[in-house]
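Lecture 7 notes: from sequence to structure.
We start with the chain below.
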Amino acid sequence: MLMYTGKHPRNVYGRIHIAEDCWQKFCKESAFALYTPFIVSLASGNLKVESFRKFVAQDVCLLKIFANAFELAETNAQDDYAKHQINELRKTAINLHDSFVQEWGSYFVKDTTLNPATSKCQDFLLATASGKIDGVTAPIERTKLPAYTLGAIASFMKLYAYIGKELKGLTDHNCYKKWIENYSSDRFQDLSFQTEYLLNRLSDSFTAEELDIIETLYSQGFKHEIDFFLAQPLIQKAVVPLSGEHNLEERQLMIFSEFNFSFASVDSYVFFAEMAIAKESDKVRKEYTYTYPYEPTLKTICWREAHKNYINAYVKCIEDILATEKAENLNHKGLRKALEKVSYIEKEANLSVIKFGGLKGLKLKDIILAGERSILHDVCFEFFQTVKKKESLNADVHVLSYCWCGDLIRSTLSAGGLNGIKVHANELEFEESVCTGQILRKVESPIDKVEAFAKILESCGKGNDKKELLTVYIGDSFKDLLCLLEADIGIMVYPSPNLIDLAEHFGIRLIPLFHGVVDKQKKSVEGAETWKGGLSGILYTAISWVEIHAFLIGS
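Predicted structure tokens for the same chain:
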């Protein structure tokens, strides 16, 4: 049987680290556990003691289930080293279990009935350790079972370790402190690490199919633990997911996003430049038959020059902006003036492209086809697909973009099943479906964008039977800052160091989204408005679209 050489490549020492590969693939999913109402309430320090007691009882049972699964894995292990190491892992799980029992009392744990989510965790782990794995019909070698069992347990351990570290220092509430300390402790972090280390060692000679089974078990373990946290009962209001606060009868949720680098992985400017240059090059090839290397066409030279001029002007503008005095508090007026300068550069760049006919001759059908075949950010698309499918959310979704052609955006969104999203962008002028070279300039600058944002809100705002608006703006650029600040919730996704410097230069406070959610939970009062209010000078940062998904919609 051939050894695996595929999606889990060997390192320089010839080893496959399946545990690290699985965490790398599924780590973003951890946001779905972190943003559960239970964990957010726990992190804020205002989780009711009654809810925490019920949770600890289930948690202690889960630790016992881990120990039982380790015991089965030890029984199936073939060599003394693996048996010894698994036994050590089992002892650590038991010690952690015993410390919780001592803290809360054995009578409390003894009378606990497993809730459905904990029961599913038990069924999954013990079935895996016994060789009963969903989707695997062929007989499973007993020698493989320890690795499969550790693959399932490793996901639980890693997620617990991650949550413990994320919650450490967020609350000093005595009731929860011991739990957080246990899972953020070096002892538990080492338990997670040793589980992964042994998993890697036991699976090093596995085939492609066997490694895929471990990856599937790891993924299933992740989902079971997320469901475990979701199942914990609360007797107080939670601020997550945002959709849980959404009252269709009173409020309208509006979500805004940029297109470039959010939906598409390539800037639309680069996309159109390459399309125009390719079209011109094809024309040259048809007209001339010589075989030596082609000289750049005049249009190619013009595109290069336009791009160089734009980059130079933009970089100089940013340098001048950062050279001004840094604000301690929000300097909205200064930010708007700075973005007016950026707006001038954007408009001059567009005018340059129009003058040299950079887009002239492009066919509408080619643009639409290219949009349908665009390389997309799947996670972003999945988020918006979920938003559109979730009827209870009834969100009004808008894309605000500097893209030269709204048809490109609409075709890209349509290919992903997102026909209902409203697009606000520039448009190309066509005659008989061929571009004249003119750009119908509607949203070509940061100032245009914030004015378009205001007009959309005005048209959907209160009046007669119109609902109160709750606006979420998701952006990733300096040019988005005005819109981000105007929204009730402004979220910067994948913020670059340069963007962070610019935001802080104008006195904008940047708060990791999870920390912001925890702070809102601390201040939450039944019936009180949690998120309403733009121009607070606060923006939230998210490291992925999965995190935004977890915050807005939940698992």
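Points to note: Residues 168 and 181 are 7 Å apart (CA to CA). Residues 1-6, 288-292 have pLDDT under 50 and may be disordered.
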